[in-house]
Amino acid sequence: MTAKIAYDDVEVGTELPAQSFPLNRATLVQYAGASGDFNPIHWNEKFAKEVGLPDVIAHGMFTMAEAVRVVTDWTGDPGAVVDYGVRFTKPVVVPNDDQGAVIEVTGKVAAKLEDNTVRVDLTVTSGGQKVLGMSRVVVRLG
After folding, report:
1. In whole angstroms, what is the distance from residue 111 CA to residue 109 CA?
2. In this predicted model, what pLDDT tens digit does every residue of 11-36 receive, in sequence order?
3. From the centroid of its chain, how far is CA 88?
4. Do the beta carbons of residue 86 and residue 134 sit within 8 Å?
5. C-alpha distances in angstroms, 7 versus 26, 97, 142?
6. Positive or negative CA dihedral for 51, 32, 79, 4?
């Protein structure tokens, strides 16, 4: 597969379609099963609060994976991702209610690089707070 976006059709400042990713406690349990990360801060409210967290929090790698979907959906090819890095700045708190939490992601082309690659900077928030910092993705376009 190759990216459906052409390098020549992209300019610095191009905005990717924003996306929202809802999650709840069941999502966290499913991710724990898939990843093998059963740390109780991701499913046990009592434990999470005992270690100083406000409540159960989403897995950092889950948050990171949801965020990069904005880029892979835009390119049409997950294999187009050349490099991806973030800083975890705040946890995604997932209350045990009917609402859960929502991860909001926007992206913008920040630089055109060599070899048909571009750098996309992501803004990732939940509950009005930035949860990932320095979220940068390099993708190879068609």
Report:
1. 6
2. 999 999 999 999 999 999 999 999 99
3. 11
4. yes
5. 39, 44, 6
6. negative
